[in-house]
Amino acid sequence: MRLPPSILNKYLDRFDELIQEGERIYKVIKDIPTVKFSAPGEVIRPLTQQELEARQKLQGWYLNYLSLLDQIIPPRSVHRKLLDETESYYDASDKLNTYIYRLKGLKEDFQKGYLGDLGLEIEAAIVADYMGQAEQLLAEGQSGKYDYVPAAVLAGAVLEKSLRTLCDKQSPSISRVNNNGKPLTLTPLIDVLKKNNLFNELTAKQLRGWADIRNSAAHGHFDEFNRSQVDLMIQGINNFLATHMI
User: Is the same domain home to 70 and 141?
Assistant: First the structure.
């Protein structure tokens, strides 16, 4: 899944900020002498005010570096070991220089979509928010004959969007268009995912039932379903998403 440009650019900007700040700090601390490499009897000079400030900024920079990696690296990625590394370095400047080059490499992989799961995590959070709104619509709807309809429409829209994402998650991805090049609607999406063994027939039957409710709600056939069915629909979609979209 491709990230929305606004989100992609937000993270790319953060990469650039950390790389540039890291390079500024490195220029200051790279010449700080260390006890490890001093000659016997050599007196280590006091740090300048600029060097002291750079060393202080370095601690915050490391925290920002780890925070960014934690957000962009998928949980099961081989890159995860970068967050828990125990490698030793000659000194702080050597360590910082290594981290800067890692950021440059990770930025390239991230920009080309090779790190993977961030887009899915963002979408999962959005989906959870919309499903929460559907639950709220059902719980707080004004008393009336068809007050449950908006919740059905919203839950059905979330389900359709999630099934499209499920198609995209596969490797290779499953086509989301028909032979005429038109986007598949909810029921055909269910059928194509079932055909590709993403779930069994029992699950497909449940999904088709929720699709029927969504279609009835969207086309004004409000007497074809009731509040209780919408409540079960929302619960069922939440369970399906927890099983197949995480």
Answer: no
- Please count the other Cβ atoms lying within 10 Å of the Cβ belonging to residue 64: 15
> What CATH number has the domain bearing residue 227?
1.20.120
Range of the domain at 189: 118-244
65 vs 103: CA distance, rounded Å: 8
For residue 65, how many other CB atoms are within 10 A of its CB? 21
CA pair distance 67, 69, nearest whole angstrom: 6
Domain stops at, among 58, 83, 111 = 111
CA-closest candidate to residue 148, choices 44, 230, 65:
230
Torsion of CA 225, 231, 234, 239, to 10 degrees: -120
Residue type, 81: K
**Eight-class DSSP state of 87:** -
pTM for the full predicted model: 0.53
Mean pLDDT by 10 residues, the chain (246 residues): 69 94 92 58 73 89 90 69 63 87 88 64 64 84 77 91 85 86 92 94 96 93 92 92 75
Separation of alpha carbons 28 and 33, rounded Å: 12
Interhelix angle 201-218/149-169, nearest 10 degrees? 130
Give the integer Cα–Cα distance in Å for 102 and 15.
Answer: 11
